Amino acid sequence: MKHFYFLLPLMLWCGIAGAQNKYAGAYYVYDYKNAPAMTPAPEGYRPFYISHFARHGARYCTSEYETLYTLLSKAENNALLTEEGKTLCKRYLAFYRKVKVCAGNLTGTGKAQHRAIAGHMFARFPTVFEGPTHVEAVSTESPRVIMSMWSCLSQLQSLDRDIAVKADASAKYCSWLQPNLKSNPHLIKGAYAHGRAAQEASRAFFMETVPWKEIVARYFTEEDALEQLKSSPEQFIGLLHSIAADTYCLDTDQGCFDDIFSEEESAAIWRASSHLARYEVSESLAADYAAYTLEQIIQSADADIASGGTQLRLRFGHDAALAPLIALMDVNGFGRTATTIAERAEFFPSYEVPMGCSLQLIFFRNASGDILVKVLLNEAEATLPFPAVSGPYYNWEDFKAHYWPVVRASKYRIAAKEPLAALKDVD
Questions:
Q1: pLDDT tens string 308-321
Q2: CA atoms within 13 A on the CB side of 164
Q3: Which of 3, 29, 184, 185 has the smallest C-beta neighbourhood within 10 Å, fewest atoms?
Q4: What is the pTM of this model?
C-alpha cells in the first residue's frame, strides 16, 4: 500500500527568486512554493488521470550573452562608451566569464521548479497514484527541456515506489510539441512573414513608449553609436533587459543588474516586448499550430482513459508551443484578439507563461463513469470559454464538443496558406 505524503524539503527552494518583478515577462520565474488552494470536486468524483504540458524551468540566457559581449567589446574598442558605459562593460565582462559556457542550460532553480510541480501533483491528487502508476512522458530534444522532464520524473519516482515511466525526447513529436521546428510537416515556409505586421507595429510601439534616447545616452558617447555598431536601440535595450531579468533564473547573482533600469523603464520595455496575445492585423499562425497540440491532448486522453493503462501523460517543451496553446484554448480569457500592441500585454501578459509554466488537465470520475476535467494554469484553477458543471469543473464531453471545431478551424486556416502541406491532415 502506498503512503501518500508531501515530501518537498526546504532545500528545494534555495534558488527560487523571491524579489523578481513581473516586468521580467517571459523570464519571470514562477515560485511553486505555495500551491493555490483547490475547490473540492463535486460529490462522488475522484481524480484518476492527469494530462500535462510544461515549459522548461528557469534557464541561462541563450544567444544574448555572446551578442551583448560582442557589442560592448566593439563599443569599448571604438571609444564609444561613456563612463557609465565603461562601468557596465567591466561589470558585464566579469558576469559573462561565469555564464558564457552555460548558455541555454537549465539552472538548479529550474530543476527545483519541476520537482515542486511533481511533488504538488502527487500530494494534491493522490488517487491518481493509487496502485500501479504508469507515466508516458515526452520532451523536445533541447537539453534544458530534457533536464526539466528528468527533474519531474525523478521526483515522482522518489515519491511513488509503484510507478513505471516511459520517457522519450525526439523531434518526431514536433508537429504538436514544438511546431516551430523546420522538421514539422505542417510548418509553412516563411510562416514568420505572416506576422510581419505585428513585428513592425511592435517596433514602432517600442520607439514611441520606451525612453530609449535617455537609456542609450547613459552608455554611449555618440547618438548614432549603435548604428555604427550595426545594432539598434531596440536590440541593445532588449539584450540588457533580458539578461538582467534572467539573473533571477540563476542560482547565484540574482538581481545583480537590477540597477540598470528604473522601474518605469522596465515597465515600458516589458510592455513593448510582451506580445503573447493574438493581434488583429497579423496573419501569424502560432495559435493555429497549437491545434495539433490540442488534438493530441484530446486523442491521447480518450485513448488512455479507455485503456486504463496510463495515469499520467506529461509533455515538456517551450513557451513557443505552450503560449499559443493557452491562447487557442482561451484559458482565463487569454485567447482575446488585441487591436493594438498596447492591448497585447494587457490581454495576455507574458509573465503568465513564466519559466516553469505548467498547464494541467486533471480528470475526475464518479461511480457511474461520468468524467469531469479541471484545468490548472501554473497550479491555479483556470476558466474555459464554455459553461462549467460546477466551479472550475467542466464536463469532458462538453470540452471535446467545444474544442473539436476550434481544432478543425485552425487546421483549415493552415491548409489555406499552404494546401499541399496541410490539407491532408484536416478532418
A1: 999 999 999 999 99
A2: 7
A3: 3
A4: 0.92
